[in-house]
Write a structure and sequence with these properties.
heterodimer; A: about 110 residues; alpha+beta; 6-stranded antiparallel sheet; about 25% helix; disordered C terminus; B: about 325 residues; alpha/beta; Rossmann fold; 7-stranded mixed sheet; two-stranded antiparallel ribbon; about 55% helix
Chain lengths: ~110, ~325
């Protein structure tokens, strides 16, 4: 059941990118890029995948500028202000107080 | 201090749009405000000297958000059960009414603020789905003998018009987690997104959504006018703001029964089912502190919405306010 939901989530991202007609789910999974690869890697864990179509509407609450999704640290990064918003359980946390300041050279320090 | 300046200046700017001359003091305030608003965005220390209500208590503004967070963190797991128990299932009717008044069309983009466990968003997606099915049936019926024009149209239309999407935004992670679990167990995830965000500072760009709803959430917001401003910002022109909230019961008899039920029964039910008397005490007190229908309508109009009207449900226990961004 869980796999069904996730595979549907993935088809939604794929579909929104490719505007492909309704086809069998399995065939679409393989040629898709980025997010699907991480999904198949972590199939063992119960880690839900962040929905990249959210990036269309999501902006930094402070500067209202678009964000970059960083797949390794699983965060949304605002380059200008140098802050990163964490994503927990596939849900991005856009509260400014909970964002992490990205220090260039020194160790990272949380803002709170 | 700076927060009130911001309010004043916003009003002043709006008045200036209506061709009323600003005094020199107003102009000075605006330049001050640019500095102040930047400070306000990053730090909210200025608000510490201001106080607001938390139920019948008076607390500093910074406190309120934290305490509200704790209330909902505690009740998150039992939230839906408690809703059914407290309102005797009537809350479902209120939410269904919201959807009927909203009457969303396929392709609509919804932002459900303080959406928590996702009740409104689920109903929205169901409604859209049934609308789409109805449309398909209508098309199927009428295309029994398609004209040459219909046939050529079917070849040329895009694959699908914009898919409707519901974004659930809540300041409380726990509530969203419960909502997401519900969605996963119902198998509803297409077109549904979850975001942790502050209603006073939404992480969305301008002119994004067709409909903004906030159901039983706005009385928990510390600065309601800021939340209304943000609502205006993220709505597309022509977009609709809809707010369900507990309000004032005008009928005196009903009011006495409602008060007795609220203060005697609800915290008890809260203690029995959720093991939390205080949270539900807060709930009923916060309802009393919230402005009544007309006052709230005035606040919505002040924020810049047009054609603001409200519908009283269940004799005024709940009011559905609606306004448009034009």
């Amino acid at each position: 059941m869980f796999k069904n939901v996730l595979s549907r989530l993935v088809t939604e991202t794929v579909r929104s990118r490719r505007y492909a007609p309704n086809g069998p789910v399995i065939q679409r999974l393989i040629p898709a890029s980025g997010p699907v690869r991480t999904f198949t890697d972590r199939k063992g864990e119960a880690q839900p995948q962040f929905d990249a179509s959210l990036l269309d509407v999501l902006v930094c609450p402070l500067s209202k500028k678009p964000l970059r999704y960083d797949a390794e640290t699983n965060e949304l990064i605002n380059e200008e202000l140098g802050i990163a918003y964490p994503i927990l359980d596939g849900i991005p946390n856009m509260i400014p107080q909970e964002a992490r300041l990205i220090q260039k050279d020194s160790a990272e320090t949380p803002t709170h | 201090m700076a927060a009130s300046m911001r309010l004043l200046v916003r009003r002043a700017i709006r008045l200036s749009h209506k061709n009323i001359t600003l005094t020199a003091a107003g102009a000075a305030a605006r330049s001050d405000c640019c500095r102040g608003s930047l400070v306000c965005r990053c730090f909210s220390d200025e608000a510490e000297d201001r106080s607001t209500h938390f139920g019948f208590e008076t607390v500093p503004e910074t406190e309120k958000a934290k305490r509200v967070y704790k209330v909902f963190e505690n009740v998150a797991q039992k939230y839906d059960i408690m809703n059914d128990a407290m309102s005797l299932g009537i809350h479902r009717m209120w939410k269904d009414t919201l959807l009927h008044v909203m009457h969303p069309q396929p392709g609509a983009q919804l932002l459900d603020v303080a959406g928590g466990t996702g009740d409104i968003s689920f109903r929205f997606l169901d409604y859209i789905r049934s609308q789409e099915e109805r449309q398909k049936r209508r098309v199927a019926r009428s295309s029994q003998t398609p004209s040459w024009r219909d046939i050529s149209n079917n070849y040329s239309t895009q694959d699908e018009p914009r898919e409707s999407r519901a974004v659930v935004c809540d300041i409380n992670k726990e509530m969203l987690k419960v909502g997401k679990q519900k969605a996963d167990s119902l198998g509803v995830s297409a077109g549904l997104s979850w975001v942790v965000g502050d209603a006073e500072e939404l992480p969305f760009d301008d002119d994004q959504f067709d409909i903004y709803t906030i159901a039983f959430g706005i009385r928990n917001v510390t600065h309601i006018d800021q939340a209304l401003q943000e609502a205006l910002r993220v709505l597309k022109p022509g977009g609709r703001f809809m707010c369900l909230e507990f309000s004032k019961v005008n009928n005196p008899i009903l009011s006495r029964i409602y008060d007795a039920y609220s203060f005697q029964m609800i915290p008890v039910i809260g203690e029995v089912i959720a093991g939390d008397w205080k949270s539900y005490q807060y709930l009923v007190e916060s309802i009393r502190k919230f402005p009544n229908q007309e006052e709230f309508k005035g606040m919505i109009e002040d924020a810049g919405f047009y054609c603001v009207k409200y519908y009283n449900l269940t004799g005024g226990v709940v009011a559905l306010h609606s306004g448009f961004k034009l």
